[in-house]
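Troubleshooting: if your tokenizer reports a length mismatch, compare your output against this known-good record of 210 residues.
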Amino acid sequence: MPDMLAIISKAIFEKEAAGLSPGQVLPTDRYRSQSKHLTPLEDGGRLFLVTVRPPDEALWLVAVLEGLSSDDEGWIGRKNRVPITDVTSAISKLRFESGKGIQAAKGALGMSLQTPRVLTLADSELLLGSAGGGPINFTAHQEHSALPCLCKQCLPRSPERAEAQGMRFLRAQVETGGRLLYYWLPEELTTDSRAVAQAVRGALIGRLGS
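Known-good structure output:
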């Protein structure tokens, strides 16, 4: 369930976020795009929306959308709660799944981000950290598990995929009430990942309510 990054054009941002500045929240729940590059979001994951601001090509994190589903206009999820944040300092640190990072000539930052990109876990944590944290990793530490631990301390060292007892797994996550739970999804259940995520989220809600 990869997180992805996509850009909002200057014109659309100034229309939808008129008068808003860093520190304020854009209460959007939608990204209007039918780009085929966003297809990985069908398996879950978050959509990080950014925009490039004049006059010095500042990169702003505009919103983070979760619980996404697609419709005729694009993608819709839960209403954003992450404040607009200047993440220009993160440009040189972002690597993306491709490992190539952002390579843009002066004046071309916006153009270089036109194609949505898959974020690494480190990229997502960097952006959320810049914005003031984001959801809390609620995953318990697993000392003797056959699969890598996904707790807050171990997560940065965990891989995207793992194998145990002859089975392959993909790292996945769900979020509710500001709490984030990571878990290993058997690769054979990838086509049912949305139903699995709903079940895991329900269990998390029950645990938080107990």
